[in-house]
Write a structure and sequence with these properties.
single chain, alpha/beta, Oxidized Rhodanese, domain 1, 5-stranded parallel beta sheet, 7 helices, 5 strands
Length: 143
């Protein structure tokens, strides 16, 4: 009887862990896999649509590249917040979760991950497909 109670208790504990902490189960995913998964849960805008939104106004362009990358050039008026500190500093930088945010990085990977994270945090956010490289290729203005 004691073995049966112990078994049931252990089984209940394992099932509880599986329900509470599904991310603790190893998936053996690569960075590319994580970006692909993030892109399934976010909204992306083309670089031309992003430019139109910049011209229209009312959008925060959030550059999630490194400080060094940002200093080398960025979209005019963009706010900088490196992806590594995003979750910790976004509330101070953008307290209004209803603000319109367009995220970008160098080529789209970090931006997709950041957009997914911000969406999970309740922000109104879209990722600019192709990132900084697409912006430069389109010949749009830079600071």
């Amino acid at each position: 009887m004691k073995k049966r109670v112990l078994f049931v208790s252990v089984l209940a504990f394992v099932l509880t862990l599986a329900l509470i902490a599904p991310t603790a189960i190893a998936k053996d995913m690569t960075a590319k896999d994580l970006v692909t998964e993030a892109k399934q849960n976010i909204v992306e805008v083309s670089v031309s649509d992003a430019k139109a939104l910049l011209d229209k106004g009312g959008y925060i362009f959030l550059d999630v590249r490194t400080s060094k990358e940002f200093k080398m050039g960025h979209i005019p008026g963009a706010m900088h917040l490196a992806r590594g500190l995003l979750e910790f500093k976004i509330a101070k930088k953008v307290p209004d979760k209803h603000a319109n945010i367009i995220v970008y990085c160098k080529s789209g990977g970090r931006g997709s991950l950041a957009t997914s994270t911000l969406g999970q945090m309740g922000y109104n956010v879209k990722n600019m497909a192709g990132g900084w490289k697409a912006w430069i290729k389109a010949g749009y203005p830079i600071d």
